[in-house]
Amino acid sequence: MPSHKIIIDTDPGQDDAIAILLALASEEIDLLGIVTVAGNVPLALTSRNALMLCELAKKPETKVFAGCSRPLVRPLVTAEHVHGKTGLDGANLPEPTITLQKQHGVDWTIETLLAAEDNSVTICCLAPLTNVAMAMVKAPEILPKIKNIVLMGGGFFEGGNITPTSEFNVYVDPHAANTVMKCGRPLVIMPLDVTHKALMQRKWLDALKALGTPVGDATYGMLSFYERFDVEKYGSSGGPLHDPTVIAYLLQPELFEGRQVNVEVEIHSELTMGMTVVDWWKVTDRAPNATYINQINADGFFALILERFSSL
User: Fold this and answer.
1) For the chain, how big is the Rg over CA atoms in Å?
2) Which of 166, 175, 266, 285 is the most buried (most CB within 10 A)?
3) How many CB atoms lie within 10 A of CB 72?
4) d(C-alpha 5, C-alpha 27), whole Å
5) Count of CA atoms in the C-beta half-sphere (13 A) of 287
6) ∠201-206-211 over CA atoms, to 5°?
7) CB-count exposure of residue 30 (10 Å: 0-12, 13-18, 19+)
8) How many CA within 13 A on the CB side of residue 77?
């Protein structure tokens, strides 16, 4: 029996792909639908990629909706320099045969939440928060329906990965992130401070390939391409795997540690636009609004992904 009803909001992206496949491989999760947004690549590609991943997992019944094609206020910034022109470079997946749902992703999110019981749906955010913020602004009555929001975004001790102070997902749409941070619902944040402790190692990548399945081959290819950027940038032994931490937290929260803190998003200064200002030491009187994760059992995290992928 599934223990988590979730909506995935995403911009695939190789690391998004691993998160989506992990959710699709896990019986504990009831995936109500996937909503795409512009981010790592433009909306047409993130939507195409989501459809391809559902087919790769042999879950063609999964509903995929296209959401917003640009941030709320600022021009779109994308990350082809990391993810390649398609967003899933290295995977060599066939064009999808399933199609997008006709309804706009924001409208579907609102409709789905309004039909749900209070505190029953978890929103898993792997991307800029445009869709989620838009839904909150358009229909604030959805808020009581949200059990919690688990999101990959931000960074404090690690700084930023797109500017000196800003993590990509928050930087792309800081105004949306600001709206979500202030929504009043339980938030769990997976920042660079934890994902930079989840580094892919060659032995683990080889184990994916050794699965000898379409999922194993595709994920080995896409992650081998994806990690090259971060390995060169950081000089590390492997690239960080960001977005799957969101799904892993639902499946095995004991793999993670953090604390309740206040998190604010800078939306005024161009110098620090999109910075997540984390009151880690509680030096202000601002009330905590998020569980900010900063520790991970990386071995357990990667073992979980490999174990679940072996079933796909």
Assistant:
1) 18
2) 166
3) 18
4) 11
5) 5
6) 130
7) middle
8) 17
Q: Is 124 exposed, middle or buried (0-12, 13-18, 19+ CB in 10 A)?
A: buried
pLDDT of residue 1: 64
Question: pTM of the entire structure?
Answer: 0.97
Query: Is 242 tagged catalytic?
Result: yes
Spatial separation of the C-alpha atoms in residues 231 and 43, rounded to whole Å: 27
Distance (Å, whole) CA 13 – CA 8: 13
**Other Cβ atoms closer than 10 A to 102:** 8
Q: Say which of 4, 83, 196, 242 is annotated catalytic.
A: 242
CATH match of 4-309 with 1.10.260.40: no
Q: Beta strands of the chain (E only): which ranges?
A: 4-10, 29-36, 64-66, 121-125, 146-152, 187-190, 256-261, 263-265, 276-278, 290-296
- Name the residue ranges covered by the structural domains of the chain: 4-309
CA atoms of 109 and 239, how far apart (whole Å): 32
Token duo for residue 144: 């009581």
